[in-house]
Amino acid sequence: MMACMKDLEQENSLLKRMYAEEKMKAEVVAEDKTKTPFHERGRAFF
């Protein structure tokens, strides 16, 4: 019984970590979509 509980706790920890990583990725993508692309800024830096 205790071994099963320990396995579930480890799996839960892994899933929480995976969720946090995917959430951060989604936030970066969402933030990136709100920025103006470099080629649309009206001038280039050479």
What does the model show?
This protein is mainly alpha-helical and 46 residues long. 72% of the residues lie in helices and 0% in strands. It has one helix spanning 2-34. The model has no long low-confidence stretch (mean pLDDT 86).
Question: What is the gist of this entry?
Answer:
This protein has one helix at residues 2-34.
What overall geometry do the principal axes of the alpha carbons give? Answer: rod-shaped
* Percentage of residues assigned to helices: over 70%
- The overall pLDDT, averaged over residues, is 86
Tell me the radius of gyration.
Answer: 21 Å
Number of helices: 1
H/E series: H
Structural class call reads: mainly alpha
Largest sheet: none
C-alpha end-to-end distance: 66 Å
Beta-strand segment tally = 0
Beta-strand content: under 5%
* Uncertain residue segments: none
